[in-house]
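As the work plan foresaw, the team has encoded backbone shapes as discrete tokens. One protein thus recorded appears below exactly as we store it.

:::
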Amino acid sequence: MSKEQQAQSHLKKSEECLKTTMFKWSPDFDSAAFESKKAADIFRSLKKYDKSIQAYEQTSDNYLKTEVNGAYNAAKCQELISQCIKENTGLKTSKDVIKFETYAENAGKLYEEPAPDTAIHFLTRCVTGISNIISQAAFNQSPDMEYVTQLSRTSLSLLVMAANISKRDVTRGFETAKIYSDCVKILLRLFNISDDESHLSKVQEFQRQRNNVQASACVENNSDPAKFGNFASEMVLVALANDDFVQANRIWQGMTATGQIQAEITGLRSVDEQSLVGNAVRASRDHPIVNKLLQAWDEDDGPVVNNILKEQHFFKQFETEYVKLVKRMNNLPTGTGKFVEKMNNDLANKEQHSFENEEAGGGGNVSDESDDLC
């Protein structure tokens, strides 16, 4: 008997398990799921993916009707279907990506209640695989932006689902914050490729959510809040890249404050969170550098801003997408700064006044010489 015949035999047994007789009043869903799962595994080993997916779907339906671990086992089948789609198609088109996303989300939803850890791990692992595909597709000489955008949307959708599961437990704050950071990096990569500024407003939303979950975890667990100096700097960079100095300044003031809560700007929602974050940012090495950057920007001091952002080492050690963001910024101040401008104006006025005095003095000497001649 060939392997395909074995698979068909298991499917036939599965159908028989669902039948009822005079002495068998209810279907045996456990046995049916067991047989159809065997068939699906064989089809997958033979790379007959359509038949494998169909058998896994049948297995998933049967598991959902069982009493023990039904949701978990059904989720595993949905996960296997998503793997079959990836193996079969390589996710080379937007249609393949959407189909993969559908089954991955189904698996995440079914894993959520019985095994939240498994759900988070599975969803983030899916995104890691998609990120590798994006890296290859996005940096071709002429990338297919529709395809890259769909890959990015799928990644965001799966990460948001993972974050929603993770943030239910406050002690997972750092893990949830990392998921939101990954969302930010995906959007920044899209912006760096497409120059679509609408992505930057979404970046700021995820940054605020990241602040909230990590600050809550720090307050709850008395964890180290040192990372907030870096978080605040990243928020300022995004606002400046969006050509919104006013918002950048408001973000910095909000993140360094220790009393006043500005949830719509910082994402922080309690006095304890605000105090903890404000003190952490003030004590960070980011504080003097970003202060100087914003002051120079406000004074239209192009050379100082350019030196801080693009010549000094500080911002070059940020995450890759932030480094690319800084490199691409073409809206830097072009002036020489208010202090230098004032010095130049004072010097020009002094020269003008000196010239006028010389002219007046020169005219008087000519008159005196004429008098002497007379």
In short: Residues 180-359 form one domain. The two ends are 137 Å apart (CA to CA).
